[in-house]
């Protein structure tokens, strides 16, 4: 098995034709490649849906094999201040392109991490060097960019990948790596991914390191996630008033899967909608989860907070039982 490259890089699409799950965006980009001209672009959307990949594929389709000479990729979360704009970005933007495409491309990943001063300097750089350089700004939250930058860019909203798209990618990798991948394992990969393709590929590579045969148990182990049914059982025990058993179940999932308190809380939140309780009780549970999540973020002891949440769930269950009595 070839582990020379992380699979997130090894199986990254090389051209726009290979990009999955963003059909409308890919069609717009292909039109730009055909005319050999692009505007400044703003890629916005959740993590792991193909923003950086689409930018790299666009550059390869435009500049072919020598794309590295006319393409600069930077990550704004590494250098967030005004110096990065006045230094590397400005130096690259002011030089003339050496290829037959009349402009170069600067990809600024995580652009929403730039400081306000750096963003204003970026706006001025985009104005001055737009003849020779095009900017692609990639971010999770476009609202964090100043309005003058947003108005200069053609905005591309990347959607979360569908289950079908993720399954197709997983099957493609499994075939290339000759893995025996169960259908339940694919469903487990989609569950732990939360729409992020990188999480899926990293979990699949981690599972493949243990052997060719991959089951859902392997996926949950390597990704430090509990099986959904185990979290649901814990919640149902608490709702039935079996606090000690629910607490033991909590201990088991945290030890077996090496989960943090916030990991457990996130899975509890995801399982609330599947519980057989009235909507009002679900609303109360979501409210409680939000409260305890805030406490943990503020530094409270996660074990105490999780057990307190189980106690609150038990009280909600007892309240429901009392209301159902004649």
Automatic annotation (TrEMBL):
Assigned keywords, A-Z: ATP-binding, DNA replication, Nucleotide-binding
- What is the annotated role of this protein in its UniProt record? Part of the RFC clamp loader complex which loads the PCNA sliding clamp onto DNA.
Tell me the ranges covered by the AAA+ ATPase domain, including all copies.
Answer: 37-161
Q: What is the recorded name of this protein?
A: Replication factor C small subunit
For the keyword ATP-binding, the answer is: yes
Q: Write down the InterPro entries for this protein, in alphabetical order.
A: AAA+_ATPase, ATPase_AAA_core, ClpA/B, DNA_pol3_clamp-load_cplx_C, DNA_Rep/Repair_Clamp_Loader, P-loop_NTPase, Rep_factor-C_ssu_arc, Rep_factorC_C
Q: What Gene Ontology cellular component terms go with this record?
A: DNA replication factor C complex
Family listed:
Belongs to the activator 1 small subunits family. RfcS subfamily.
Highest taxon listed in the record's lineage: Archaea
For ATP, which residues are the binding ones?
Answer: 45-52
Q: Name one GO biological process term.
A: DNA-templated DNA replication
Recorded source organism is Fermentimicrarchaeum limneticum
Q: How does it assemble?
A: Heteromultimer composed of small subunits (RfcS) and large subunits (RfcL).
The UniProt gene name for this protein comes to rfcS
**Per its UniProt record, what SUPFAM superfamilies does this chain match?**
P-loop containing nucleoside triphosphate hydrolases (SSF52540), post-AAA+ oligomerization domain-like (SSF48019)
Which GO terms label this protein's molecular function in UniProt?
A: ATP binding; ATP hydrolysis activity; DNA binding; DNA clamp loader activity
